[in-house]
Amino acid sequence: MGAGMAADLAYVESATRRIAEVAKSSKIVVEKSTVPCRTAQSMRTILEANSTPEVSFQILSNPEFLAEGTAITDLLSPDRVLIGALQTEEGIAAQNALVEVYTHWVPRERCITTNLWSSELSKLAANAMLAQRISSVNALSAICEATGADVDEVARACGRDTRLGSKFLKASVGFGGSCFQKDILNLVYLSEQLNLPEVAAYWKQVVIMNEYQKKRFVRKIISTLFNTITNKKIAVLGFAFKKDTGDTRESAAITLIKDFIQEHARVAIYDPKVEHEQIYMDLSEPGVVDTRKEVEKHIQICGSAYEAAEGADAVVIVTEWDEFKDENLDYEKIYQGMHKPAFLFDGRLMVNAAKLREIGFKVNVIGKNELAGTA
């Protein structure tokens, strides 16, 4: 940790202790500074140690998004106001109290309420992603200079892509398709040929992160299933790289299922559009007969999600087909047919985890820790 950040945390701790010393009645403490995620935890520890039946404390995270040069405008007409709280009855009441303050001049729909940790992380994430965009266009500027392309023209063309706004910010088990990885690797190759190793390394890291996300998801599944999936049945829902297509090129499902096979699991696959032969081809090494035979021993291609989940130890959602949403699929029926405990791993943010937990599922959702917001 840098000296500046350490000093900031020291000031936060000092201020927290001072509040605890002088408070004569219950307080809502609002954290405004940009701080590391879970700083509120240390604040809670200090304040709760000084709580009494008469004096209690609630902590809110309300990071500021004011930019130098436009701070007053940003305050009077913000894009959004972010307010995080512990998801307890008292925490939500404190959260609503601060929302009421802001709605005197900010439309209610711009006031975003989250759990405490999401709020703390969002400020860091927003700045990191803005910096990432600058670094990305700077990396492209080096290629432009070396090739004769015009960085303003490239940036203008990219800026007309509506996906570069609020879209493509949904976490998943990883991207696939014929374009993303191929085009990124083309950029890597071009950068290397132009003797721009730092630029090549920058873009290569995007592919590395994508592979890491898939491997991380597999490790989570194995560790949750008591550190082994040998001879366990894993139902994989979805094989195409995205919904409404039969295209499997670079699909995350291929990597996941190959890893499951290596771990000697039995894999039941259901996808509404992908042809069975395509699945066998994608999971087999080209031209290696023994590999095809090994794949056929370990996988079962099913005609429905219910068939795939029958007798399964875990269900893994890999493609965001609409039919896998909990309002479209009878998860009660799926649960009844599974081994218990019945695990469900959502790699596409498709299901209502709370609803499925009420049925009895042990649910893991990518990018979420369902217990963190309440403790």
UniProtKB/TrEMBL annotation:
Key words of the record: NAD, Oxidoreductase
Catalytic function, reaction form: UDP-alpha-D-glucose + 2 NAD(+) + H2O = UDP-alpha-D-glucuronate + 2 NADH + 3 H(+)
Pathway entry: Nucleotide-sugar biosynthesis; UDP-alpha-D-glucuronate biosynthesis; UDP-alpha-D-glucuronate from UDP-alpha-D-glucose: step 1/1
GO biological process: glycosaminoglycan biosynthetic process; polysaccharide biosynthetic process
Residue stretches making up the UDP-glucose/GDP-mannose dehydrogenase C-terminal domain: 235-353
One Gene Ontology CC term in the entry: nucleus
Binding site for NAD(+): T34, E68, K182, R249
Binding of substrate, residues: F65, L66, A67, E68, K123, F168, L169, K170, A171, S172, G176, K242
TM region(s), chain numbering: none
Any single Pfam family the record assigns to this protein: UDPG_MGDP_dh
PANTHER family linked: UDP-GLUCOSE 6-DEHYDROGENASE (PTHR11374:SF3), UDP-GLUCOSE DEHYDROGENASE/UDP-MANNAC DEHYDROGENASE (PTHR11374)
Family to which this protein belongs: Belongs to the UDP-glucose/GDP-mannose dehydrogenase family.
Protein name: UDP-glucose 6-dehydrogenase
